[in-house]
Amino acid sequence: MLVDFNTLPEESRVWIYQANRSLTEAELEEIQSKLNIFIENWTAHGSDLQAGYTIKYKRFIVIGLNQDLNKATGCSIDASVHFIQQLEKDYKVDLMDKMNVSYKQGEYVAYKTLTDFRKMAKDKAISKNTIVFNNLVNNIAEFKENWEVPASDSWHNRFIK
To answer: Which of 60, 82, 110, 123 has the most CB within a 10 Å radius?
Structure first.
């Protein structure tokens, strides 16, 4: 059951998929259409899942699930992963690699491997004030408060001296 992402409860679970490049307007339209269909039909053991999504910076697909209504199961999570993997194939984009980092350079969102990010931190090309995206947040409340934060307030802090 597709609902507006902004109407989901704060404790709703979130999954964040970051693209290794910006998505085009045409790709975004197609992906939104596919997300609408997928979420409208997403179930757990035959029960509807109340979920929504948002796409941020033409780069992050954020899916939220109200687990108060019905919880995600192994099969429903597998279905969402297969859906995202199909998007990767359809648009030749990487959405599943958790070993990469996105951060802001002014209004631009940059994307680096963790190795390159560490090197940039060592070389002082980024600082504790660099805005990073903490894709490890678990729910909508954390997404709102702790997703887009200075590196000093995130797990990225370990790389910055």
So the answer is: 60
